[in-house]
Design a protein that fits this description.
With 79 residues, the protein is an alpha/beta fold. It has a single domain, classed as 3-Layer(aba) Sandwich (Rossmann fold). The chain has three helices and three strands; from the N terminus they run E-H-E-H-E-H. Helix 1 links the parallel strand 1 and strand 2.
């Protein structure tokens, strides 16, 4: 997928549904590699599957962003 975000990595929290999911799909459509974070691992996996089905790149992550150590793991996954 080519777009204005080619070569960039984006972390989206709450991306298992709602606006977070929509943002994740939009960034993927523009060529970003997306780290999908949601407290619900099944919801995160569904969003990753949807991005992959459209030819995009994404990984699922289900850490709690209110926890410092978990937040560091999200960033580590993006690197």
């Amino acid at each position: 997928m080519a777009g204005i975000c080619d070569g960039r990595v984006v972390i989206i929290t709450g991306a298992g549904g709602g606006l977070g999911r929509e943002y994740a799909l939009a960034f993927a459509k523009e060529g970003a590699s997306v780290v999908i974070n949601d407290i619900n691992p099944e919801a995160a996996a569904r969003t990753v599957s949807e991005i992959a089905a459209g030819g995009g790149r994404a990984i699922a992550n289900s850490n709690d962003i209110t926890n410092y150590q978990d937040s560091a793991l999200i960033v580590k996954a993006a690197l």
